[in-house]
Amino acid sequence: MKKMLHFSIISLFLILAAWFYRGFFYPDAYALKHWPIFVVMASWGAKIGIPVLALLLVVLYIKILKKQIPAINLALLSLSFLLILLIIYPVANTLFQRRHQTKELAAYHPYLQLKPNLPASRMNDGTFTIFCLGGSTTEFKDKQGRGWTDRLEEDLQKEFNTDTIKVYNLGRQWYTTLHTLINYEANLRTLKPDVIIVMHAINDLLHNADFSYLSHGPFRNDYGHFYGPLNRIMTEKDLPSLIGKVFDHLWYFKPRQVIDQDAFPGIVPFAGNLNTLIDLAEKDGVKVILMTQPSLYKEGITEQEKEQLRMLNYEAVGPEKQWSYSSVYRGFMLYNLKTSEIAESRHLPLIDLDARIPKTTEYFDDDVHYTVHGFDLVAQQIFQALIDGNLLELAAPRR
User: Fold this and answer.
1) How far apart are CA 270 and CA 222, in angstroms?
2) What is the CATH number of domain 122-388?
3) For tag attachment on the chain, is the N or C end more exposed, with fewer CB atoms within 10 Å?
């Protein structure tokens, strides 16, 4: 009778262990591909460690039954292990919070999410200043520390044989038209640049994916639903929250629903923000040049190219839904079209950069970010458009 009872206990334990173990063979492919390497290590750790642990517990149980191991010894060992964990946990949790939150807080801003880039050097009288505003596709540089703004400044100085032309890279990753508008009014407007070049699309577009991990609630015109870079601080408050988040992605993850989205409510605030920015600049006599944003999005995109679409495959993804490629393609074209329409209606110069940069992996390493060749070509095309259209009017600078 006792043997049957112990056999039933062991059998039930092994069945439950097998069911638990099986769940780690249905992880979230998104997490394994986009999260840090420790998530992949945790996945394999579970696949290797769980059977070993289960067999070890069965062996210990049998040895206790046969009185080969005193139960009191095992109880003391377990208690000692628990006490060690209780001692280690607060230290580990404090270190985690300090690393992932406290140290990173220096990069954040209470209104703009990330602290804006501001002119690093003093703006002198007699200098023709160009402010380049946008998101990461304006801010980012190549491995040598040169972005398209640096290349553009060099080309313009060479063309006009002067070092009094200054091109300032004031783009910031994650920034939308709303961030740029607030930053311009709060920090940049008093500096009175001669020209501002504005390029936005992708970050505003992604706010429409209000089901994503970066959003908390339905779409809002003031973008208040989208936490963007702040999301990590919110969702990874402490070590247990991170562990729980990882577990959710590695154990019996339910496949997401791929959705097609035709309506993009964010196009209304996008247009409003751009028009307000233009109003402020024109009131101060600042010339505004709009640009469409170039991308890898195109008809007939290959599956290999789709794999490179980080913005689509990472930021337009939530716990239950993700955008289809046709959604992001359709929305991105709509945002660039709106930029063109605003330029036409406001009688502003437009550099249709999306039409000037070939949509190949030679120039893009993901949806919208550039390779070295991409940086070169973007700078060349902007320079050529400025010169051919005489858009800078350098013969009569305002200062």
Assistant:
1) 10
2) 3.40.50.1110
3) N
Question: Is-contact 191 124, C-beta < 8 A?
Answer: no
**What's the pTM value of the predicted model, to 2 decimals?**
0.86
Residues listed for the chain: 399
pLDDT at 189 > cutoff 80: yes
CA quadruple 380, 383, 387, 391: dihedral sign = positive
Q: Are residues 201 and 292 in contact, defined by beta-carbon separation less than 8 angstroms?
A: yes
Q: What mean pLDDT comes out for the span 201-227?
A: 96
Tokens representing 99 are 């690393």
Q: Domain-by-domain residue ranges, the chain?
A: 2-106, 122-388
Tell me which residue has tokens 């600078």. 397
